[in-house]
Amino acid sequence: MKGLISVVAALILCVPVIVSALSQEQQEHLRYLGEGPLKWNEWRRDKRPKGIDFNLCNFSNASFNSINLDNVSLKAAIFYKADLSYAKLREANLEAADLQYANVYSADLFSANLIGVNMMGANLSRARLNETDMTYARMNECKLFRADLENAKLYDADLERVDLRFANLTYANLARARLFRADMRNAILNNTMLADAKMTGANLSGADLTRANFSNVDLTSVTFTSNTIFKKTTLAGSKIKKIWRDFLYNQDVINFSKIEWVD
User: Is 124 within 8 Å of 145 (Cβ atoms)?
Assistant: First the structure.
């Protein structure tokens, strides 16, 4: 009952803003959504509606636990502090959406459009984010513990103080991303693109960096440990403290001669 009340309250915020622009079909979709996730999921399964559009809607603080929003258009929608844990958002369009401090724990966002999304402080631990496009996303202080980000696009994203412990970033693109003080302990970064990323204060203890690309990255203030794996890692133009010279030489890194060693 509490969840239903929160959904209805969120819809009250949504409808007055855009009701004049909504079609009869869209208003019907909002009405079913207002009945809560269980009724909504049943309705979607039975009716199989096409072209669901909740662009610009305000769902702040709504309870959408386990809801099915696969393929739904949610451009610039607001999910501030909403509960989207275990939600299905596969191939959903969340471009420029606001998910600040939302609970997206263990949600499935496979191949979703998250370009320019604001997820600052959101909890996406154990979420499925593989093949999602998070280019230009704002994810400062976001929790991504054990999240699956294989093949995800995080180009030029803000990831300051993000929790990426044990996350899978295989083949992800983080070129030019800002990873200041990011916690990436034990993360998997096999074949990950990190060229020109900003990583001041990041922690890569125990991370697997096999074939990752750190070209032109200043790694002088990044924390490594003896169990950080650098096998075939590209380090052309990167800056690294001299104390790691022998260790990296034995790791068979690529472009060893082009590393800039710093005292």
Answer: no
